[in-house]
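Support reply, case 0932

Customer input (verbatim):
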Amino acid sequence: MSDVNSVSPARVRDIVEAFQAVEWPADRGILAPLAAQLGWTVDADAARGVDFGTGYEISSPRAEALIADGVVAQVNVDLTDRIRNADAAQTKAFAEIARRLRDDLAAVLGAPVRERGGKDARYTWDLDNGGRVAVAKLNRVVQLIVLQKRYADIERAEERHGISDDRDPGADIR
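Our regenerated output:
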């Protein structure tokens, strides 16, 4: 099986627009209205995060918001089918979908501020509100990742200091 379903670029733009309007730091209270705006449902709400059903026509229509220090830290949204053992054609489809979404978002947000190609491609944009969004091709899914301003600032500082985004911090202490 090589078909991989994905969320439409228009829906991805809707998600990005919704998070562009967020003021960081954002209390978890913004999540229910934001979910309603996007047509998502809250499936679980716990101290460390909130799980959503997105209703997108993919195998795992879900998103999750991670909560740290009482505020929204990061939001991960599945944009494709989630495939445990993707074959070569599915892996290629993930890469093509990620590139297509990069091109579509670039038309709205401008060129990505950071691009990483290869097996774990990731295309990142800074938002006017200080946050960041990225389209990430992971092993078994393509996701949209939203970072709150504080976490985005950390990424930007690491970039200024030449710290690679695929560096393993634990390797320094082994």
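We compared this against your earlier run and they match. Two observations from our side: The first helix runs from residue 9 to 20. The chain has a mean pLDDT of 94. Please reopen the case if you see a mismatch on your end.
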